[in-house]
Amino acid sequence: MSSALSPTSTSKRKLSTRRRGISHLPPYQSQESHDQALTAIRTFLKSRTNYDAFPVSFRLIVLDTKLNVKKALQCLLLNGVVSAPLWNSDTSTFAGMLTVLDIIHLIQYYYHTANWATAAADVETFRLESLRDIEKELGVATPPLHREHPASSLYDAAKLLIQTHARRLPLLDNDTDTGHEVIVSVLTQYRLLKFISINCIKEIQQLNLSLRKLKIGTYVSRDSAGSDNPYHPIATAKLSTTVFDVVHMFSERSISAVPVIDDDGVVLNMYETVDVITLVRLGAYQSLDLTISEALAKRSPDFPGVIICTASDSLGTLLELIKKRRVHRLVVVEGDEEEKRGGKKGRLLGIITLSDVLRYVIGAVAIGDAIEQEEEPPQKPDTPAPAP
Fold first, then answer.
1. Which of 32, 140, 212, 293 could form a disulfide with 135 if both were Cys (CB 3.0 to 4.6 A apart)?
2. What's the gap between Cα 375 and its chain centre?
3. CA triple 132-285-279, angle to 5 deg
4. Domain assignment present for 281
5. What is the pLDDT along the chain (388 residues), one digit of tens a residue?
6. Residue 387 contacts residue 141 (beta carbons within 8 Å)
């Protein structure tokens, strides 16, 4: 029995696939050893703090809410990051996170309410503090101000990430001299999972059960065949889909990527929120009317590619991949087993996000218990509510 994790990249001329090699699953897979490994990983996270997951060297980008959107975007792109904490200099307080989704909401707002000439002029002066007004106009929930202390356990931080559907968690401390908040760092799902993969090598080797058996990720519903979206509940696009149609999917579903498929459902590429941000930075707002095929031609040639896997791959193999390279999501496609049963190799089956992986590793019972505690009457008025 074998499995493969593969990057797929699309150049401006044609689609090319680079195989990453084959990793063989052990002939015998024990549910008991799998469960023991998960318990050991959770115990390890409870014994480690957020400080422990800090890289040896890192930089922290913090943006003042008075900064205009265009300069903020330039700052993010020049530093190779897609989000940053916001700081209200008037009150000397943490003001949330600037994420790519905030910019997607801004684009959607201008597309519906103004012409592009107005948008181009406004973005030059539009301040980050006004983004929350845009969200109100669109009827989008305001992002919560969740945070965690650097000295709290990684297990608690992981639970908060899952409960709030957040991809990143700001870590704040208090200045003992001034009493003001201090932004220390930001813990991302990727950083947390990579920390696990580096420090729990023995346990990861025991996570040999397949993704199919563990039900990690979102998969195409069997009931969706013949419907308007045969890949429900997964949002998909074709090469002929317009960029703005995908932007609407990003905003409506709060997702950051959409698989691009052909008429047979075979995955060709991914279109991501970062691709849209590149257009905004270039001032090419009118490019939202381009097709995905045309937009992909403008993508940087250093795009890392689409990571695909099959449902036969193991959780351990996935975590090993996270240790070796930066991974944000995996696209599950039909492999040799499905092809033998009459399927189409490479056809979309599902998507696995880092949230899915972290949720499984932490455990639904622990997360469910924590959510129930949050929903109890107001003994804990400061406890943050889960984001929609």
1. 140
2. 26
3. 90
4. yes
5. 334 455 444 433 344 333 333 344 444 568 899 999 999 999 999 999 999 999 888 889 999 999 988 888 888 888 888 899 999 999 999 999 998 888 888 877 877 776 656 665 666 678 999 888 888 888 877 777 899 999 999 999 999 999 988 899 999 999 888 888 899 999 999 999 999 999 999 999 999 999 989 999 999 987 766 567 789 999 999 999 999 899 889 888 888 899 999 999 999 999 998 888 777 666 655 567 889 998 888 787 777 789 999 999 999 999 999 999 888 899 999 987 777 787 888 999 999 999 999 999 998 655 554 433 333 333 333 333 333 3
6. yes
- How many Å apart are CA 360 and CA 106, to the nearest integer? 33
3-state secondary structure (DSSP) of residue 353:
strand
β-pairing, 84-88 with 63-64? parallel
Q: Please check whether residues 169 and 109 belong to one and the same domain.
A: yes
Backbone angles phi, psi at 301, to 5 degrees: -65, -15
Residue 289, in any domain of the structure: yes
Burial call 187-203: b when 16+ CB within 10 Å, e when fewer: bbbbbbbbbbbebbeeb
Residues in contact with 132: Cβ distance below 8 Å, sequence separation at least 6, in sequence order: 142
Residue 318 lies in a domain: yes
Give Cα separations from 218 to 51, 126, 247, 297, 321 (angstroms). 32, 37, 20, 29, 19
Residues belonging to the chain = 388
Instruction: Indicate the SS3 state at residue 272.
Output: strand
Rounded to an integer, what distance in angstroms lies between the CA atom of residue 50 and that of residue 57?
15
Do 289 and 231 fall within a single domain? Answer: yes
CATH number of the domain within which 357 lies: 3.10.580.10
